[in-house]
Specification:
The chain is mainly beta. It has one domain. Helix content is 6%, strand content 41%. It has 2 helices and 9 strands. The strands form 2 sheets. Strands 7-6-5-8-9 form a 5-stranded antiparallel beta sheet, with no helix packed on it. A hairpin with a 3-residue loop joins strand 1 and strand 2. The longest helix has 5 residues. The protein starts with a strand and ends with a helix.
């Protein structure tokens, strides 16, 4: 089955494309990150660690690992979700920096650091060029990643 492939420009800008298998593209990764071949991201076209201009990207899966999270207990104007909800910082497989996304399809008390997750996409007909192409992330039935492997990732 063909799954969406997106380009995630640093600053969380998504551009849809077709490819076999789910993917997002992290643009930026530059400065020291570009030299090291990592998938760093911050603002569009800039390295998240050193701020240097970047020109390359890193293809990433739409699966990742929760590195931190918070529980929202108050309503938000930006999302329609039952309370309480979880906002998680997720590092996509193939990247080395996290971004924030909504977690769903599991009770908030079951979300944990190291949890493996996968993106749930909007229908392709509704895609734009924003992070909103991903509706939320849901848990995967995979073992958690050990804290020691992710503790340095922000």
């Amino acid at each position: 089955m063909l799954r969406p492939r997106l380009r995630l420009r640093l600053g969380l800008r998504l551009t849809p494309a077709l490819a076999p298998g789910p993917r997002v593209r992290l643009h930026g990764g530059g400065g020291a990150g570009e030299a090291a071949g990592t998938g760093d991201s911050a603002a569009p076209g800039a390295c998240g660690r050193c701020g240097k201009t970047t020109s390359t990207g890193v293809a990433c899966e739409d699966t990742g690992t929760v590195v931190s999270f918070s529980i929202g207990r108050g309503p938000s104007q930006n999302i329609q979700v039952d309370l309480p909800y979880v906002a998680a910082n997720i590092v996509l497989d193939g990247a080395d920096i996290s971004f924030s996304a909504l977690m769903q399809e599991c009770p908030y008390e079951e979300v944990r650091i190291g949890m493996r997750v996968q993106a749930v996409w909007k229908p392709k007909a509704e895609w734009g060029t924003t992070m909103a192409n991903i509706r939320y992330f849901r848990p995967l039935d995979e073992p958690d990643v050990a804290f020691e492997k992710i503790k340095e990732i922000s």
